[in-house]
């Protein structure tokens, strides 16, 4: 039963040889072990695809200070590692290579995420006159096509593929943020944007279902972070009305409510999938809870640079300036990114991502196989 692709893991983790494969899905107290991780999503998970496909549109992420904690710019939209990197480390796998990188071995996983992408595809946006506003069309559907194209290099027969993907971890998201925020920044109303949420959730759920039919049994579906706390949205969509801001955090209530609505529908969709596919484990990974905690009590987490102020940016109350994004002329970077929650007004710092990952990992110990 030991497949060729599985054996390197066995060699790396000799303890696994003591467990029969029927125990592969570990009793719940074990740290989960997988042969590979496949990740889909946007800039919260992208480890280089966005830079490979659209270096012209977003040259900043290919330059320092992006990557300053990592040691070099990689296309990650942060100073260092992302949640997906900490997950890979926790399960003993290499950091996921971007799926579009050449000369890579993807047998231990691939990251299909693309910075700036949407869950919904360009046909949806064309119908609404919004096709031109996005920096990339590499939607979740496109990323799934890339996965299908990669498949023959991972496994051949249906049985072999099911076996292989049954030992893989699939991380699907966060995705959907760009579907909401870019239309809002293009002056669509919140009421209109709210109507996109069920379509986004349906797309995520359909993608999960396709992966389950390919053999996936372990999926992580991260929810949305509280986007009302993003410096970019606080700066570009301000309200003259004080009541529109949460008193405790200073975040925009309506945008946080939009994220919560997305998360509520996502959890409902997960519930439906779980009852349809017994034996599959799908974890709702909470992005919202930990980030709102950071923002409410930053000192508790060592975030002394101010809750909503980006480490890297061109000034203003949130250190976000659309004329001088991080890594553009006129922007500066804080000395210690580990003391900031926000890296650049949208994305989090490595320090923040590092706090989020264990929460997702511990969700495994509570997850039941139905
Ligand atoms: C995405 O596709 C639309 C057509 O649906 C096109 O107008 C737009 O330029 C494309 N965007 C990119 C970045 O390729
Ligand atoms: C949105 O509205 C603002 C203010 O009215 C305007 O400056 C901006 O150009 C508009 N943006 C788009 C994409 O239409």
Automatic annotation (TrEMBL):
Entry keyword set: Glycoprotein, Hydrolase, Signal
Superkingdom to which the source organism belongs: Eukaryota
Name of this protein: GDSL esterase/lipase At5g45910-like isoform X1
Record flagged with keyword Hydrolase: yes
One GO molecular-function entry: hydrolase activity, acting on ester bonds
Lineage of source species: Eukaryota, Viridiplantae, Streptophyta, Embryophyta, Tracheophyta
PANTHER family recorded: GDSL LIPASE_ACYLHYDROLASE, PUTATIVE (AFU_ORTHOLOGUE AFUA_2G00510)-RELATED, ZINC FINGER FYVE DOMAIN CONTAINING PROTEIN
One Pfam assignment: Lipase_GDSL
Span of the signal peptide: 1-29
Protein family: Belongs to the 'GDSL' lipolytic enzyme family.
InterPro entries with a match to the protein in the record: GDSL (IPR001087), SGNH_hydro_sf (IPR036514), SGNH_plant_lipase-like (IPR035669)
Organism from which the protein derives: Phoenix dactylifera
